[in-house]
Specification:
By secondary structure, the protein is an alpha/beta fold. The protein has one domain: Metallo-dependent phosphatases (Purple Acid Phosphatase, chain A, domain 2), CATH 3.60.21. The protein is built from 5 helices and 12 strands. The strands form 2 sheets. Strands 1, 2, 3, 4, 10, 11 and 12 form a 7-stranded mixed sheet that branches. A hairpin with a 2-residue loop joins strand 11 and strand 12. The longest helix has 17 residues. InterPro entries: Calcineurin-like_PHP, Metallo-depent_PP-like. This is Calcineurin-like phosphoesterase domain-containing protein. One of its GO terms (molecular function) is hydrolase activity.
């Protein structure tokens, strides 16, 4: 059994062929899929536009893998409707999976580290999202903010989760694989870089590849 876990693809109504091909490849190679939030970006598009876009060519494939879809802060439950069933069989905020002696607890991460964008009107978050994305891509030193965010999430996990539980999240866009501290962050799939997790033969395998 091979389970693919990814998050933070931030898909919009704009189709990207290279990204599509990457997603199709890694989804096709898996038996099950867990989308851990921010699959599409409700701060940059609407759900109607997203599901009518070229990305809907992934939907039958995702359904065939019995995909579990967790909501994130850019794809809040209130941003979508029952048509999430076009690409997933379960829609939730938290999902648990037994692995050997451990329990993997999947959540996007915005409950661990809430951001102000969830309190702002959507017309405004469109611009804050675009500006933040531009700065992080073009000013690499600012990426330390992502590491700081990830550390805050990890610290929160250590305080609220029991021994034997490992939290698997995204949100911060900062990969971290720290089983000693019960924390995995799978990263993101954006800007030509794909970082994700495979669970294969009861092993947790961090993956990274480029797609441009």
């Amino acid at each position: 059994m091979k389970i693919l876990v990814f998050s933070d693809t931030h898909l919009t109504d704009k189709f990207e062929e290279n990204k599509f091909n990457l997603l199709k490849k890694i989804i096709s190679a898996s038996d099950r899929v867990i989308i851990n939030g921010d699959f599409w970006d409700g701060q940059l598009t609407t759900f109607d536009k997203f599901i009518s876009s070229g990305w809907n060519k992934l939907f039958p494939l995702l359904r065939s893998k019995k995909t579990i879809y967790l909501y994130g802060n850019h794809d809040l439950k209130s941003f979508s409707d029952s048509r999430t069933s076009l690409f997933s069989v379960i829609q939730t905020d938290i999902y648990s999976l037994k692995l050997n002696e451990k329990t993997l607890v999947f959540q996007h991460g915005n409950k661990l580290l809430p951001l102000i964008d969830e309190k702002l009107p959507r017309w405004l978050t469109k611009y804050t999202t675009l500006v933040a994305g531009f700065l992080l891509v073009n000013l690499p030193p600012l990426r330390y903010l992502l590491k700081t965010a990830g550390q805050k999430m990890k610290d929160k996990v250590k305080k609220i989760y029991k021994n034997g539980e490992i939290v698997v999240c995204g949100h911060s866009h900062w990969v971290d694989f720290d089983l000693n501290n019960q924390y995995i962050n799978t990263g993101y799939i954006e800007n030509g870089v794909a970082k994700y997790l495979l669970i294969r033969n009861n092993r947790l395998l961090a993956q990274e590849e480029n797609y441009l």
